[in-house]
Design a protein that fits this description.
This protein is of the alpha/beta class. The protein has 13 helices and 16 strands. The protein has one domain: Alpha-Beta Barrel (TIM Barrel), CATH 3.20.20.70.
Amino acid sequence: MIEIGRSKRALPVFGFDDIAIVPTRRTRGVEEVNLSWKIDALTFDFPIIAAPMDSVMSPLTAIVFGKLGGLGVLNLEGLWTRYADPEPLLAALADIDDPVAATKEMQRLYAEPVKAELIIGRLAEIRAANVPVAGSLSPKNCVEFRDVVEKAGVDFFVIRGATVSAEHVSKVAEPLNLKDFIYNLDIPVLVGGCATYQSALHLMRTGAAGVLVGFGGGSTARTRDVLGIEVPMASALADVAEARRDYLDESGGRYVHVIADGSLGHSGDIAKAIALGADAVMVGSPLARAAEAPGHGYHWGAEAWHPTLPRGERVRFEALGSLKEILHGPSVTPDGTMNLVGALRQALASTGYSEVKEFQRVGVVVHQ
């Protein structure tokens, strides 16, 4: 603990930029590395999930991402479930350069109600492509659309919010009882975000298959500026990984996956997240650079269109290549924004590990 004046003490914390991975053993050929990730009954070629953000995931890009070996999550409160044809709206939004005007337009667009029939149709479209299906809702809309999502036959139900707790308190609305909600579902649930040992442990006790660590949003978030809240991802992941280990003992062997969700703008951040204990990562901004990205060069999260307190912004990205090239290369940039899977494979090979789970034991150092 360090002292902040006479009345407050705080823990020092670390983000991804504060740490580095250290090779301390033999190296391997990249062909020796297996990046597969298994959760529940499904196995994926690599441990990268596409974030449920309208700027990166449409039904089409979710299908492409699934065919490339990953899990794409569709935002079930996004424009694709509010409008029958959101493509012209997304194109028109991309023509607005002024950030204030863009925020006002997003608030207007997202004021349209979510429609159950569109949820069913979008998920059926992804299912018809024979790829894994996942949809995301915020906690406030889970009860209303639970039956719709469950009947649609998704493989994963994602409950994603800025801060999700197992003990939400409200005097004006019936709070979502996560434990009861998840217990009564026949679908594996990924839930978050969280950032501390205790909050993660509470979420694990609800029966979730995985917890999301972080607030999502990545470079588009302004939560620190608006609310003063920030997630130091390196410290958060290390704490939640410890909660996973303790819950494994407490539950008699039930393993809950830890999924990093935020501050993952480069391939090196993905490697660091797994080195710190993550089983997988949920990325947004790298995928917004794909030519197929529905954001037309812009990237934003749900925080950006909050009706009364937006705490996010659109970020402009230049298209670097196809979604396949963003994931599997070849890369034409030297900054870790392309060939994300190849970079992770190289990180394991350079440090002598052949499995993602083993890589969680790699050594790290802190920059002073």
